[in-house]
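Question thread 4412

I'm putting together a teaching handout and wanted feedback from people who do this every day. The idea is simple: show students a protein as raw sequence, then show them the structure tokens that encode its fold, then repeat with a second protein so they can compare. Below is the first pair exactly as I plan to print it.
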Amino acid sequence: MCRWARAWHGGRLRVVDVACGRGGDAGKFGEREGNVEWYLGVDASAPAAAEARRRAYEERVRCASIAVGDGVDAFPACECGAANLVTCFFALHYIATSEERADALLARVAAALGPGGIFAGCAVDERALPAGVPRAWGARYTFQLPQLIESTEECCVPWAAFAALAAERGLHVAFRRSFDKFLRGAGMRSSVVENRCYFMFALIKA
């Protein structure tokens, strides 16, 4: 995704990473890739943010700043239109717990991005949710991935409704692909069967 974004912009990335976790993507933004002008991250977990800072330092991510807080209320502050890439991987189902929260997130994303900027992420496909879970904003369910994710509560984010909200904020769908298809397109394969319930997306700021 980062390589696609860099090719799209033809230059260095100015990144806002919502729910950056433990900094697993630090290598993609580090000195070896040489593709980042600055990087702003935020995560709700203080231990995760601390580890992300360590990894950002280790990978020599340029001008990295990582805060602790909610992805909406503590959305990293940057000049309006200064970012050209906002990411949110494997976290929409924790952040966009209602239509209002989703719209608040999209408003912040749209304000951070300049024209042609990209909002990219990975989200749960509501079609893969357990039977009996309504495909509606905020419908709750539990998910567990042995040895990776403990049993935790997540919320349904209906994609069609999310994309419609995004369009109202000037963010338009560039692509939506299953996680498996996206990885195959990048010459990789997922070894985790449960990853098939996720999809990758990219929205472009008008």
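The second pair follows. I'd like the answer to focus on this one:
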Amino acid sequence: MAPHAQGQIDLRYITPADRDEVMARIEAIIARSFIPGTRAKLAIRGEFLPLTQTPAAARLMVLLGRAYFAMDELDEAWTQMTRAEGILSEGDPAMATVLTTLGRIAQARDEVEEARDRFSSVTARFTTTPAVVDAWAGLGEVEADLGRFDESRRAYAEAVRAARNPKLKVDATAIAAIDASIGQRHRERFLKEDYANALAFATLIE
């Protein structure tokens, strides 16, 4: 008889409940001694994620995606957010953060139309979530990039209105970012000698 032997189990499962059931059976087998004088020990070195993800797992992906985005790791951020998008229900408030971040990533990649669609989806569906403030601001930016200045100002005005809503609990940093974005649009139009639009944007600054 060999003094020592080991085996490995590659366990894949659909749901967390499947994992619990199979692991209970494996542990029962390990605990049973078939040969007198021998013993066995189960050590878990690593695990696969369930093939069917849960909303809780998706929210972790959202946090990770936001961290990647903050570090300008756009590809990784996109991967995490699109994975979360495929798991969360359509009405889950976390979906607002997912869509807004995907819009910001598309915007950074100069995919303006896609960014506009992502932001518009948030402003239409998630009016009571904090992410709607950034979505309105992003929409204001991409509408200006598309030369749709009236639509841009309307979006910025909605961003300002939402930022003032105490129920959304928007911090001063976000409000300052909106003002900076509007100021950028003002300067762009002023340098283009489009003074009417430059003045119109300036009136939106808090």
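Top answer:
Good format. For the second protein you could add a caption like this: The chain has a mean pLDDT of 89. The two ends are 81 Å apart (CA to CA).
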